[in-house]
Amino acid sequence: MSHFTVILLELSDLSSFTAFTDLNLVGILTDMSLAGSDTSANTANFAIRYLVQNPKVQTRMQQEIDQVLGNDRWFTLEDKPK
Ligand code: HEM
Question: Which residue lies with its CA nearest to atom 38 of ligand 1?
């Protein structure tokens, strides 16, 4: 699998695609970094605080994770509907 940044760098090297500049590349990466860090941190912060204040919900969530995943594997997108 190619890394997102590598694909963008290859795109910026294609002479036939001159509309994509280094400045565009920096803009996209800055955008992703700013849009992705605060939102993810706040979501994780909210979820952890909520679970700490609601131990019954925390127990139910743990049971659901144990039931779907068991103990020997990490989750994948295929687990989403389960
Ligand atoms: C729990 C985490 C996140 C939440 C709650 C969140 C929330 C949002 C919301 C509400 C929007 C506006 C959508 C709209 O008005 O159309 C948005 C847009 C966007 N988000 Fe997130 N986001 C999260 C994680 C991320 C991450 C990890 C990235 C990048 C790595 C990211 C990149 C972006 C970008 C680039 C846009 C603009 C999309 C566009 O203009 O079409 N976000 N996000």
Answer: 35
The domain total for the chain is 1
User: Going by CA atoms, what residue is nearest to atom 35 of ligand 1?
Assistant: 32
Nearest CA among 2, 3, 8 for reference residue 31:
8
Q: 10-44, pLDDT tens digit by residue?
A: 777 765 666 777 888 889 899 999 999 999 999 99
* Cβ(36) – ligand 1 distance below 6 Å: yes
Residue 35: which domain range? 4-79
Helices (H), ranges, 1-82: 4-13, 22-53, 55-69
C-alpha 56/C-alpha 66 separation (Å) is 15
Q: Report the predicted TM-score, pTM, of the whole model to 2 decimal places.
A: 0.74
